[in-house]
Amino acid sequence: MTIPAPPNRVEGWPPARLEADDCAVNGASPDAIRLNSSGGSVRAVGWATLPKPFRTQLERDGETLACSLEVALEIESGSCSHATAAGQLTILKRATRLHRISMKVVVSIGGSVLVPEPGGDRVAEHAAVVEDLVADGCRVGAVVGGGGVAREYIGAARELGANEIELDQLGIDVTRLNARLLIAALGEETITAPAEDYEEAGESLRQGDVSVMGGVAPAQTTDAVGAALAEYVDADLLVYATSVPGVFSADPNEDDDATKYAELTATELVDVIAGLEMNAGASAPVDLLAAKIIERSGMRTIVLDGTDPERIARAVRYGDHDGTDVVPEGAGEEPTYWAQND
Ligand SMILES: Nc1ncnc2c1ncn2[C@@H]1O[C@H](COP(=O)(O)OP(=O)(O)O)[C@@H](O)[C@H]1O
Ligand SMILES: O=c1ccn([C@@H]2O[C@H](COP(=O)(O)OP(=O)(O)O)[C@@H](O)[C@H]2O)c(=O)[nH]1
Fold first, then answer.
1. Is 222 known to sit in a ligand binding site?
2. Among 72, 98, 124, residue at a domain's last position
3. Where ATP is bound, by residue (predicted)?
């Protein structure tokens, strides 16, 4: 098919805001599209948020894909007024140019995934993925867990009689050590230490910097920190990089019959997680507080195996992963990326 050139300048475009009906064309959800204030174009918030037919078309047209794209709108009717009705706008079947935009993604990296054994190799790989995503135009908040080292310290201190809050505090210290490792690997000049609260981390993101956090308070894990940061900065996507391939019906390391969920609603995620143990150093793909925050915020979330950091990059860029999609409530009614993922 012939792909028409995008209009360079269209009188009256962009309108003040895009109506929900306009966005319904081609199955885009309103929050998948934001206006570019500077030209006759519309920015897709992120690759993963684009409806699948659109993504497929862009792939077919041979564009280099990035985590975010600037796409032009073809205005079929020649009208580009604010009152343009649904059906008059068709998203061009081609990205006109890659564009650095601000998809906000929070990546929560389990300590056992970031530092599976002493040494910096895996940390360097994760840092490279974060840097690549930033180069693509993403604003990245990384939250780092404590992994095996935290569990060793917690185990030793438990034997010595420390209480659960003291153990959590110990765990937090280790998450921050791991966060410092990631910072060292990032070679960022602007962040020198892990952010200790969400405002500090949010400020880094607002400045266009990467933010790196470890734990913040006892009685939770960094999973909850990731969810809270994602909610605080209004992230487009939250990714949990864990040592398991997703959320299972039971612990896959304990139960051979455990099956992986390709997709869950946030409420279903809460139900699965509610059955798991919760004490200092406990293992879960996502902790209960995190699941509740995801539920209340409607955050688009992916739980995946992060032992190969490239999987994180693929999931953010293309929505392509073998993990578990946590689907915002109600998304099934619209042909969004989430609903069409299969
Ligand atoms: N239902 C479940 N689905 C997936 N993993 C589970 C489940 N129940 C318990 N687990 C355990 O959760 C852990 C998640 O991976 P882990 O890497 O420890 O978490 P984190 O990424 O937070 O460090 C695994 O050790 C796994 O055995
Ligand atoms: O905000 C936080 C983050 C972590 N922790 C403690 O630190 C441990 C290790 O963190 P996490 O479980 O997130 O590390 P992971 O196992 O995911 O690598 C947790 O089990 C908690 O005991 C905490 O109390 N509050």
1. yes
2. 98
3. 111-112, 147, 151, 242, 248, 251
Q: Do 152 and 48 share a structural domain?
A: no
**103 band by pLDDT with thresholds 50, 70 and 90:** confident
Residue given tokens 């612990």 in the structure block:
251
Domains contained in the chain, number: 2
Six token digits for residue 275: 């059955």
**Co-location of 38 and 163 in the same domain:** no
Q: What is the pLDDT of residues 11-39, one digit of tens each?
A: 333 333 344 333 333 334 333 333 333 33
Domain boundary among 98, 128, 153: 98
- Within a domain: 15: no
Residues 132 and 243 in one domain: yes
Residue 134 and residue 222 in one domain? yes
339 within some domain: no
The reply to whether 216 sits in an annotated binding site is yes
- Which atom from ligand 1 is nearest to the alpha carbon of 108? 21
- Confirm whether 214 is domain-assigned: yes
Three-class secondary structure assignment of 264-275: EEHHHHHHHHHC
Residue type, 58: L
Give 138 Cα–ligand 2 centroid separation in angstroms. 26
User: Ligand 2 centre from 169 Cα, in Å?
Assistant: 9
Quick check: CB of 284 below 6 Å from ligand 2?
no
The answer to whether the beta carbons of residues 48 and 315 sit under 8 Å apart is yes
Q: Do 118 and 28 fall within a single domain?
A: no
If phi > 0 it is left, if psi is from -120 to 50 it is alpha, else beta; for residue 281 that is left
Q: Is residue 33 part of a domain?
A: yes
ipTM score for this prediction: 0.97
